Amino acid sequence: MSAIIALVGRPNVGKSTLFNRLTRTRNALVADHPGVTRDRQYGLARFEDRTCLLIDTGGLGDGEGVNASLQRQVARQSLQAIAEADAVIWLVDGRAGLTAGDELLAEKLRPLCAVLHLAVNKTDGRNPHLLSADFHALGFGRPTAISAARGDGIHALMEDVLGAIPGHEQKDQAEINHGLKIAIIGRPNVGKSTLVNRMLGEERMLSCDQPGTTRDSIAVPFQRGGRDYVLIDTAGIRRRSRVTNSIEKFSIVKSLQAIDAAEVLIMLIDAGEAVTEQDLSLLGLSAGSGKSLLIAINKWDGLDDYQKMRIKDQLDRKLSFVDYAPVHFISALHGSGVGGLFDSLEKIRSAQDKKFSSSKITKLLAHAVTVHPPPVVHGRRIKLRYAHIGGHKPLRIIVHGNQTSQVPTSYRRYLAKALRKELKLSATPILIEFKYSSNNPYQDKKNTLTKRQRDKRRRLMRHVKGRK
Predict the structure, then answer these.
(1) Predicted TM-score (pTM) of this structure
(2) Across 84-226, where does the E strand assignment appear?
(3) DSSP code at position 272
(4) Least crowded by CB within 10 Å, which of 7, 49, 80, 137?
């Protein structure tokens, strides 16, 4: 079993930078602003011949621009990480020196941490011994001077930390993000974190009425009914014109990266606000990505019968372009309808695991073309000859034929729908690409006239000019 190490400290001391350095990823959102990290972030770090599980946490102490309720939740997440960890790395800011906040935090951490290592960060370009001198007064032994940004002192720190953890033998460990990857997406404050907590059965993510509570994309692996899943909570995506904060811009980038990494997307829509233009934009992005899609209408239990009927009518009118996606009416807060999401997720898992031969795809293509032939372009009918699988997750079908560049979008949608129906793919779209399979040997070649043809053309031109 690998050692578990938690990174704690005041806001903006470099915990996420050290997390990214040790895990060799960019999973943690990093910005020169206090209070960026809020939820716990897990990642695997490999040091020499050992592997450890790192936990990045939010800042302990008074966060700048954070209300008291949210700060208490951030502190609760950090304390939970400390309780899980075999060792704790407490990061302090060497350039700021020893502060009253550090002394108060030392009193909180002393009874909670059996093994604690003090790391003085941001010592690059300065005398590390001078910057570390004041922190001896905290009484946690000799502090280690490091630079999380440049990597200075990291080797010595990890030697001390892992050397003080007995009884952990190195074993081969798979990636923690193993299972069906599911990203919860939507606008801010529609209940994404609440839904993640409900599906996990614990208060794993921060949830608050304040929009923009979630800033980073957090992947949480779990099991249900013996099946592996990875839930990815993402930050809310607003219209570009409304995004002015640089941290929110980074959060949206992380959300888009989570969409790209996921295998299934759950689009969460607030029933009280119906389907907005931003919801349609996100649904269009999801459809274009080729990922399997579920649509969850949240806060359904707070509507009366008339409002429910009006919302269903609006869904029928506006969501026709994602008619393959099942619609679930749920309450993330109370849990009603959430179990149905797992039933759809298992159907999607089965659909994604299906394998199809080229001969079967070609037969289905021929049947679809027979039922509804392609249109005629410039007096010639488009011919679609054969098809094959071009990739899985997302499912991509390559269709070969003549004049494929002239295939209209409507016919492309028809083929995708017909093939999806015959292949019995639940909530899974098909991306169709057309290839031109016939080469014209005379294409881009100019015909050379004989002497007789040139003379005839010359006589014709004189005759035409003479008539004028």
Answers:
(1) 0.79
(2) 87-93, 116-121, 144-145, 180-186, 218-224
(3) G
(4) 49
